[in-house]
Each structure stands twice: as structure tokens, then as C-alpha cells.
């Protein structure tokens, strides 16, 4: 008889309560896969879009792309990872489970002195913050950047990656408590969402920001375009408030010859070299104390629905983790 494991799965799209605890066989790794015993798995906003049916998935759906744990079996063609090593990943699937499979080339080495919870919390939000500020629009000295959900997972890491290169960071948050967090992480200015385009213009002598990183989407995208300077870049990287409806490209002309992009992590981890470069940068920054990974809540795996509820309630700051 196969060994079994606890998993979280949904039989249909819906609210957090569609996430149910169940039992499945522990899977076997394919030739280029490794099997990981989950120590912690990260909860990410994308899983709420998938659970709710905003992004299509097949059922039964086991959420999760991110986790950290010990390698307990490897496929026949795996040479780069060995049984007994601790790895992390941002690019697995079905990680809301006591074990998960991941392609060997999507594994990330975890330093011996790194807390496994930090190693589970960092990959997806860290790699995202890294590609946004280093590659989508490479932020440098003298640039002014706006970031939404600035006290959240990606936002908080992005502030910390932008400050050391000499950028001015304008953080957007929804509460005074979150504003305080963003300031503590290094933001130069913090604005509420209400009429933030005017606030950004005031802070930049009317010019606007070089780049606006917008993860809130429907509720903010219009103002993000207005807050971007002539020939600046608006990066739409999420839709926490809903998806942005189609818009007239002529807007980009009337707002000042803007560049707009809608990237995903997969576009910026094209091969092992790119993935490992970003991960090494993040791990080094954590090791140097330049990057603080904030865990905003840990939940038993069986309480995945509560983690989703909390993330969607807009009350959380930092990373939420599920611990089997
Ligand atoms: P966060 O920790 O940032 O949590 C989401 C935050 O979004 C909330 O705390 C809240 O902060 C803000 N928010 C604004 N409007 C709403 C709303 N209507 N409902 C709920 N939250 C809202 O989550 P993550 O760091 O995991 O993800 C941040 C964003 O980045 C998400 O939109 C996600 O989809 C996106 N993302 C994109 C990736 C990509 O490659 N494109 C990869 C990873 C994440 P506040 O109250 O301050 O506004």
C-alpha cells in the first residue's frame, strides 16, 4: 500500500471554505523531479485568484507553488539535488500538502543557517520583488518608484531592494499601521490610495514617478498611469482589487508616451542561471541583514482556508505560511 499524506484541495471554485483537508497518496518523482517533505509552504495571492475561479484551474485543485523542505526522493535523471538536502522553490505545484514534487532545475538551495520558515517565505515574493526592481524596470540612483501594497509581502521586499541602490520610494498603504511598517522598511514617503496620483505629482515637482509598480489592479491602475512621468513605466503585476478591464492604448499617448507591462515570475526565471542569480542575490541580502523577511502569520496546513480569509481581508502584513 502507498504511503499517504494530508493535502488541501478544492472540488470547485468559491470562497475560502472550498478548501478542504483530505488524504492522497504521496506521489513518486518523475525522472527529472524531486519529492520534498514539506516543512512550510507559502500562501500567495495567486492562490486566492485560482481558488475563486479568476484564474482557471482543473479540479480537484490542490493549491500552492512555494515551499521549503527536505528532499526525500529524486528521479533517475536528477544530478543537481540529493536526498537529505533542504531545498526551497517558488515554482512547484500542489504544495499545500505534506509532500510535493518539483522539477530539479526549479529547486533553490537553502543555506544551512537559514530558518526553513524564511526559506519558505522568501522564494515567490522575493523573486518577484527582485525581477520587478532589477529587470522589469531596473531601478537605479535618482529614480523615483511607487509601490502599492507596500507593507505586504512583495511590496515590503521591493522597498528593501530599491533603497540601497539610491532610489526614492513612495509607498502606498491602506492604514496608518501599514504606513508605519512601510516607513520602517525604508520608504521615503507613504501615501494613502485616495488620489495618490496627485500626491505623487506633488512629491516629484509635478513630473510623476519613473516607475509605478501596481499590484492592486482595477482600483488603482488608472491613477498609476496618471502618477507615471512622461516616458515612464507602469508595471501592472497583480489584481488584488480585481482585474484591470481592457483599455484604449491611446491613453498611453495622452498620459505621456508611457510604457506598460504585465509580467509574471515565469518571464523572469527563464532558465536555471537566471533563477539562481536572483535567488543568490536574495539569500546574500538576507545573510547581510539588508533584507528582512517578515512572516505575518503561520497556520497549520489544515487551516489553509483561514489563511486565505486573512490574506483577502487585507489585514495581513508580510508572508503567511502553512505548516504541515
Ligand atoms: P500582500 O501581502 O501584498 O497582500 C495583498 C495586499 O494587497 C493587501 O495586504 C493589501 O494591502 C493590498 N490590497 C489592495 N486592495 C486589496 C483588496 N481589494 N483586497 C485585498 N488586498 C488588497 O500579498 P503578496 O505579496 O502575496 O502579493 C502582492 C501582489 O503581488 C498580489 O496582487 C499578487 O497577485 C501579486 N503578485 C504578482 C506576481 C507576478 O509575478 N506578477 C507574483 C507574486 C505576487 P494594502 O491594504 O496596503 O493595500
UniProtKB/TrEMBL annotation:
TM region(s), chain numbering: none
Keyword NADP tagged: yes
GO cellular component, one term: cytosol
Xref: SMART domains: PKS_ER (SM00829)
Protein's name in the database: Quinone oxidoreductase
Gene Ontology MF: a single term: quinone reductase (NADPH) activity
Domain Enoyl reductase (ER): 14-322
Organism encoding this protein: Kocuria tytonicola
Pfam family, one: ADH_zinc_N
CDD domains: QOR2
Keyword Membrane on entry: no
Annotated keywords: NADP, Oxidoreductase
Amino acid at each position: 500500500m502507498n504511503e499517504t499524506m494530508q493535502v488541501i484541495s478544492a472540488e470547485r471554485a468559491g470562497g475560502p471554505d472550498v478548501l478542504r483537508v483530505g488524504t492522497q497518496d504521496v506521489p513518486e518523482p518523475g525522472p527529472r523531479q524531486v519529492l520534498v517533505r514539506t516543512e512550510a509552504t507559502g500562501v500567495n495571492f495567486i492562490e486566492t485568484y485560482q481558488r475563486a475561479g479568476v484564474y482557471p484551474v482543473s479540479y480537484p485543485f490542490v493549491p500552492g507553488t512555494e515551499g521549503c523542505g527536505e528532499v526525500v526522493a529524486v528521479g533517475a535523471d536528477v544530478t543537481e539535488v540529493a536526498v537529505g538536502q533542504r531545498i526551497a522553490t517558488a515554482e512547484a505545484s500542489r504544495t499545500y500538502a505534506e509532500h510535493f514534487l518539483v522539477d530539479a532545475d526549479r529547486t533553490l538551495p537553502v543555506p544551512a543557517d537559514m530558518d526553513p520558515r524564511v526559506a519558505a517565505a522568501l522564494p515567490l515574493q522575493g523573486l518577484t520583488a527582485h525581477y520587478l526592481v532589477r529587470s522589469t524596470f531596473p531601478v537605479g540612483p535618482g529614480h523615483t518608484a511607487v509601490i502599492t501594497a507596500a507593507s505586504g509581502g512583495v511590496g515590503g521586499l521591493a522597498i528593501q531592494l530599491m533603497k540601497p541602490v539610491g532610489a526614492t520610494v513612495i509607498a502606498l498603504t491602506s492604514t496608518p499601521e501599514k504606513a508605519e511598517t512601510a516607513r520602517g522598511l525604508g520608504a521615503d514617503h507613504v501615501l494613502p490610495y485616495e488620489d495618490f496620483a496627485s500626491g505623487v505629482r506633488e512629491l516629484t515637482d509635478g513630473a510623476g514617478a519613473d516607475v509605478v509598480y501596481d499590484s492592486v489592479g482595477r482600483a488603482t491602475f488608472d491613477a498609476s498611469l496618471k502618477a507615471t512621468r512622461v516616458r515612464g513605466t507602469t508595471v501592472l503585476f497583480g489584481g488584488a482589487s480585481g482585474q484591470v478591464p481592457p483599455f484604449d492604448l491611446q491613453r498611453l499617448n495622452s498620459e505621456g508616451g508611457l510604457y506598460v507591462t504585465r509580467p509574471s515570475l515565469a518571464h523572469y526565471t527563464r532558465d536555471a542561471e537566471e533563477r539562481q542569480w536572483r535567488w543568490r542575490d536574495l539569500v546574500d541580502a538576507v545573510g547581510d541583514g539588508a533584507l528582512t523577511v517578515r512572516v505575518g502569520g503561520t497556520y497549520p496546513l489544515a487551516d489553509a482556508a483561514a489563511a486565505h480569509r486573512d490574506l483577502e481581508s487585507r489585514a495581513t502584513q508580510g508572508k503567511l505560511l502553512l505548516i504541515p
